[in-house]
Amino acid sequence: MCLEQQALSQILETAVVAARLAGQRAMEEINYVKATLKNETELVTEADRRCQQIIVDRIKESFPDHGFIGEEGEPGAIFKRAPRGEPSIWWVIDPIDGTNNFAHGIPIFTVSIGVFHQGRPIVGVVFDPATDSMYAAVQGGEAQLNGRRIEAGEDDMAPTSSVGLDSHFGDPLPLWVGQIIHTSRFRNFGTTALQLAYVAAGGLVGTVVCTPKLWDVAAGVLIAEAAGAIVTDWKGQSLFPIDLDGYEGRPMDVLAANRKVHPKLVAWIGA
Ligand code: IPD
Ligand code: CA
Ligand code: CA
Ligand code: CA
Prior knowledge:
- By secondary structure, the protein is of the alpha+beta class.
- The protein has 8 helices and 15 strands.
- It folds into 2 domains: 145 residues, Fructose-1,6-Bisphosphatase, subunit A, domain 1 (Fructose-1,6-Bisphosphatase, Chain A, domain 1, 2-Layer Sandwich); 108 residues, D-Maltodextrin-Binding Protein, domain 2 (3-Layer(aba) Sandwich), CATH 3.40.190.80.
- The site of one calcium ion has 6 residues, from strand 5.
- Its cofactor is Mg(2+).
């Protein structure tokens, strides 16, 4: 069963408001951040948790029966509340994507909110508060940046175009990392969600994401697809449907690129 357009619009509206509230709050706090270690390689701040709470509270006002998956649960665990009622809808939240930047006072981070129905993304919002950029898409609709249509375009990999590389590629570095670096400019802005949004807007011709969690990509994948990009795993296989009830933070492999570049990257990476 597909959701009606009106229901999708209400979900989108709520996602936009919640993302803006959280993003503005994070910007107010960025110069006063105290970070702690979440695990050996990852920082977390009070603002991450506060922003997630702001988002969840706002969504609950409009959709008390929906489910939530958020990055910031108890230490070592994700935040999860199963949906009540039908149809079951999950909100997948990354309150600050780019915490490492944020924790160091670098205002390159986003708020990412993806909404899923029957295991597939139906609404995605990525908000970049530093530039007041709201990327958004609804299943079956166009991708937008601040209300205007964006498209992934068809630029090829070239010395003048950029490919996102994000991140944790292991040691030794796979061969294809060198292939990308030698063919194009490579970029890692430190927020996966923003890199997917940049693929949607054509600023990146593609982005390769290594072991993201669902909340890193939940919104960006729909926005990139709605903009005409192809989004798959590294072998070119579809990412969805995904079992949200059973999702406990399993890492994924994600490749998003415009139609010209995607098959080339799959040939390098998926081989
Ligand atoms: C991180 C960012 C980063 C990516 C990491 C993610 P967080 O998310 O998306 O770009 O390389 O793998 O964990 O922890 O800042 O929300
Ligand atoms: Ca993240
Ligand atoms: Ca985060
Ligand atoms: Ca994190």
